[in-house]
Amino acid sequence: MTMKIGFIGSGNIGQVVAASAIQAGYSVIMSNSRGPETLTELIKELGPQAEAGTAEQVAREGDIVVVTVPLYALSQLPDFDLDGKTIIDTMNYYPQRDGQIAALDNGSTTTSELTAEHFPNAHVVKAFNSIYAADIKTTAKPKGDPGRRTLPIAGDDAAAKKVVTELIESIGFDVYDAGPLHEGFRFQNGTPAYCARVNRSDLINLLHQAKE
């Protein structure tokens, strides 16, 4: 059976990841804050492997759920029934947009740990936050290509990270596991690794340069 990826948020990253996932053989269900009827054009563009739904439907039907909303909107999301599901968190913290969040400013937590607090029974993996949306389409390369880019992930659940790794590899990138969820600070915006178009060894060097 085809694995279905659900999207809570259908902005630039959500749209491009959805299109890439469909190309790799997944199906998708998209949602936004304005309702499924506003996604008609996007679904037409994505094709027959895509459908629109409410965020509640996404939470229920998605085998993987991608949370790709502005960080300030995280606290406004209901605590959907995501028990045991894998969540991909693509979010970044921009104080000028999201307002100051003291726990992020002082480094005591990360956006993905906030996501894990909001959905306490799900398995959160930080991914796709350190690549520009357009680059997902334009820099993807087949497995084994010497110019293939490596993307970092972080998470506390090995099985969830395996599922996310398979997704990322299938759409054209190698994956480096940066460790537990808190280690996601190493590739958040403002760090040397953020949006770096590099291979595995160069990515590891950049991740080590991050200051908590």
What does this structure look like?
Helix content is 33%, strand content 17%. The protein is of the alpha/beta class and 212 residues long. An eight-stranded mixed β-sheet has the order 3-2-1-4-5-6-7-8, sandwiched between helices.
Mean pLDDT: 95
Largest sheet, spatial ordering of strands: 3-2-1-4-5-6-7-8
Query: N-to-C SSE series?
Result: EHEHEHEEHHHEHEHEH
**Biggest sheet layout:** 8 strands, mixed
Radius of gyration: 16 Å
How many individual helices?
A: 9
Summarize the structure.
This protein has 9 helices and 8 strands. By secondary structure, it is of the alpha/beta class.
Describe how the helices and strands are arranged.
Elements: E1 4-8, H1 12-23, E2 27-31, H2 40-46, E3 50-52, H3 55-61, E4 64-67, E5 86-89, H4 95-98, H5 102-105, H6 111-118, E6 123-126, H7 133-138, E7 150-155, H8 158-170, E8 174-177, H9 200-208
Q: What are the main properties of this structure?
A:
alpha/beta, about 210 residues, globular, single chain, 9 helices
